[in-house]
Design a protein that fits this description.
single chain, about 425 residues, hydrolase activity, Aminopeptidase, Alpha-Beta Plaits, Peptidase_M20A, alpha+beta
Length: about 425
């Protein structure tokens, strides 16, 4: 691993204290922060205590005492601010399904537990980077912020939304420590997709199941509507901002080994439509008079969501007994290739891996989308495994070290690319 762009004292600290990094990860994973309920107050108190260094100022912000947020700040040589963001909550787990302890168990070079790769391992690396700069009295080239937040996994407003709405949180750039490596391929995520969530309701006419011809089957109407949505709206090529073309190209190259080039290209050039929930009927021998479906539609960043909604409505217009009763949506977002945070993150990843680092779009979206829509240049960047949200989730000691070295290097590279860009 190349540490040539790390300040010498920071490089030495990270090299000599790898055990500390692994212990941080085990400690953080040991806190049960499943969301729901998403209680993170105990882990926040531990992080707060760990960051008690004279060089660091630490503040807590909360609207829900059970879900506090923490910002640690280390002044730099300029007032330009680079933020590292990590969430402390995790998705739930069923202990009975696990072969390892869900709250942390080490087996050789693997650390198992809920959140190890999503994203408590990255949080541990951020903590160690903060301490490496603070304890060695190394002034970073830019001011560093470390924002540890709650309530990300359920999209709640007690986490990052609280910081944005109730504080002056406004860094010049942000790195979210989501794992962006998988199956031996490495990347940073510079874009995410928008989504439209629809509730479709179908009405029909009840009848006895032995005489379906005298009724109107609401489930049949509903599935017909979903198929029409797939076959008409789902087959319309999206009007994507040309700035996304190169990002889509690298995204296709990244996902091709597991999904195929054509399938991945379609993923970004056309809407994806998933029928997630369908409900209807009261008995097997009754023609159902009502039915309901919830549909998840995803759109590439740069697509006009209003045009997409209009296309959906036109597609379903005139269908008997079909009504859209609820719509929620978000816009996709992207950070242009060539921006300082994109190029600095890609270069930082190059320092710790020998293979290509792709600059790609994610298929979903999280806190990075929120930050970009607030005008904060943001990427997702972290090493881990493809086991996020899965049974026996784990990370590796190598991934943890890669995170610490690349995050420690980022302030230097970000300042270089910002100065060049300016």
């Amino acid at each position: 691993m190349d540490t040539s762009d790390l300040p010498a004292a920071v490089a030495e600290y990270l090299s000599e204290n790898r055990t500390e990094l692994f212990e941080f990860t085990e400690t953080i994973v040991g806190y049960d922060t499943q969301n729901p309920p998403g209680r993170t107050v105990d882990i926040v108190e531990w992080v707060e205590t760990t960051l008690e260094e004279s060089a660091l100022s630490v503040e807590r912000f909360e609207v829900d005492p059970e879900k506090p947020n923490l910002i640690a700040t280390l002044p730099g040589q300029t007032d330009r601010t680079l933020c590292f963001n990590g969430h402390l909550d995790t998705v739930p787990f069923d202990e009975g399904d696990w072969s390892y302890e869900p709250l942390g168990e080490r087996d050789g070079e693997r650390l198992y537990g809920r959140g190890t790769t999503d994203m408590k391992g990255a949080v541990a690396a951020m903590l160690q980077v903060a301490l490496a700069y603070a304890r060695t009295e190394t002034e970073p080239p830019v001011t560093l912020q470390f924002a540890f937040v709650s309530d990300e996994e359920t999209g709640g407003d007690a986490g990052l939304t609280t910081l944005l709405e109730t504080t002056e949180f406004d860094p010049d750039a942000c790195v979210v420590g989501e794992t962006t490596s998988r199956n031996g391929r490495y990347s940073i995520s510079v874009a995410d997709r928008g989504n439209i969530w629809l509730t479709l309701e179908a009405s029909g006419t009840a009848a006895h199941g032995s005489r379906p011809m005298i009724g109107e089957n609401a489930i049949d109407r509903l599935t017909t509507a979903v198929e029409q949505l797939r076959n008409e709206f789902g087959q319309r090529e999206l009007s994507v901002d040309s700035a996304m073309d190169e990002i889509i190209g690298e995204s296709v190259d990244f996902y091709e080994p597991e999904a195929g080039a054509e399938a991945t290209r379609t993923l970004y050039r056309y809407p994806t439509i998933n029928l997630g929930i369908i409900e209807g009927g009261t008995a097997i021998n009754t023609v159902p008079a009502s039915a309901c479906a919830r549909v998840d539609i995803r759109l590439t960043a740069g697509v006009d969501t209003r045009d997409a909604l209009s296309g959906i409505r036109n597609c379903l217009a005139g269908m008997d007994g079909i009504e859209i009763t609820d719509i929620s949506w978000t816009r996709g977002s992207y950070e242009p290739l060539g921006s300082p945070i994109v190029e600095a993150s890609a270069r930082a990843a190059d320092h710790v891996v020998d293979d290509q680092v792709y600059r790609r779009s994610g298929t979903g979206g999280g806190d990075a989308k929120v930050l970009r829509h607030e005008g904060i240049p943001t990427v997702e960047f972290g090493f881990g495994t493809q086991t996020a949200h899965g049974t026996d989730e784990y990370t590796t000691t190598e991934a943890l070290v890669r995170n610490a070295i690349s995050y420690g290097t980022l302030p230097v590279l970000y300042e270089q690319f910002t100065s060049t860009d300016g």
